[in-house]
Structures
1.
Amino acid sequence: MLLSGYLGKLFKFIPSLFNALIILIIGIWVIKLLKRFAKKIFLEKKIEPTFASFLIDSLIWGLRVLLFVIIASKVGIQTSSFVAIVGAMSLAIGLSLQGSLSNFAGGVLIILFKPFKIGDIIEAQSESGKVLAIHIFSTEIINYQNNIIYIPNGILSNGKIKNISQNNLRRAEIKFTTTLNKNTQEFISELLNKLQQMELVMSEPKPKILVSELLDTKITYCVQLWVENDNYNTVYSQVLLEAKKISDTL
């Protein structure tokens, strides 16, 4: 008698379970279809890839949660109780993941206000390098030593960011120290002449050479010139080598 009672309940539950399974299959298919459609639309509208990825991920997870709630209601779970449980769990998770939520909010701010984009060279949090990816919780950059660095978006969005790539031109300040007994005017004149001959150095604004520090036995020059961002490191090295050659001949 007891067994027949359980079997009766099971047979009554099978149609609901079957309906929930059908809804699950159709729901998964619809979500995949909407994901492809959204990607196509964002690509046609030329929306920034990181922002598009964030919107698509948010949409997909929202639809998955909605699908789960619908299936739960089909199998007889009270959705009001389920929503209350999800709310309590969200509060507990939020309190335990405050740092992660801060990074999430920072990622949203970076994506929306775009202080930099993928491919830019930035300096932030004592690190500098090229931006490879902007994730929701962190930003991935590669520095000049070919090291991959992940900076949490929370501190990145709240700190100072220097975007070197935002303007194509960059002013270089190159310091060179030599002994005080060298002929200062002759050194400046010869080095300025060399700078004017370098193809990678901008002719306008004109390069300058200033004295930045004067000690009893040493003098430090500051070479100021303008270069394109891509040529910065090459010019920096060339100027130091030329300054050393000129200093050695005086």
2.
Amino acid sequence: MRTNIQRTIFCVASFAVVAVSFFIGGCGKPSSDGGGEDTINLSYSIFFPATHIQYKTAEAWAKEIANRTDGRVVITMYPGGTLTKPDQTYAGVINGISDIGMSCCAYTRGRFPLLEGLDLPVGYLDGLTASRTADALVRKYKPAELAQTHVLYLHAHGPGILASKTPVNALSDLQGMKVRATGLSAKVVEALGGVRVAMSQPETYEALQRGVVQATFCPMETLEGWKQGEVIESVTDTAAIGYTTAMYVVMNKAKWEALPEDVKTIFNDVSREWVDKHGRAWDKADAEGRRFVLELGHDIIPLSAEQATKWVAQVQPLLDSYVKRMEELELPGAAFLADLKARLDEDTTDQP
């Protein structure tokens, strides 16, 4: 009798040991230190909602990393600011709240002083050029303001345009007009003689509909993405003073340094390719926004050469102010801005 009981206890204990060993080995948290063949789990905080084309482009980047590493790297996406808010994403990467993060430099004003030059109204024509320019300049200047993270790449949207409830053909039409704008675009509105009204994108549709504002500065893609094209009457193509918003994709420095060298190479290779993919995604969204506006029967008004010259002159003080502030901070703002303009003049958008 005792022998049978002892055998039963032994069998149960043995089964428990095997089960626990299986659980630990098969379901435990994989190592993220890059050692051996263990899976490297990384979190990615991104402010775009999961439905946005830029989220989908970032998600494709993460999947490509997984594919090229044969599944050794698994990146979990957290869209819509669910892990860190847009203005806290960079700090969140530094502090390890997320391993990777994407957000706009402009969301934390003052943190990226040299990179503020990227958003200036210098006449961006498309998102591809803006993305290539932003990424190239960061790699050339290696600004200290990004030194606490490892920079994977940058990208930027196409030129901001003016969408309004009444046609704006000339600078005089804009005087005293209430224009929805935030960040740098608010300064652009003031420089052009308009009255800036700060509000978020979700508030803009109703504000235009009710006449709280008469116009908004935004990328063309916003007119379809946020349906604001339904509550405006015309669009003024202000590409002559086209501004952008640069966005960083950065990684926690310790997590980067822990990666095996072959995995680092894959991250670098894929990131180089994705600069253009984001730029082209911005341009695709802008084209869809333009089509949406035209289907609604709205006009897209080009600025005459004379008017374009006047608008450029009106925003020039913003560029001068940037250079002066950089001099005070002992940063190479003048050289940075000169390089930016030179790259736009090269018009590299047709390069593969």
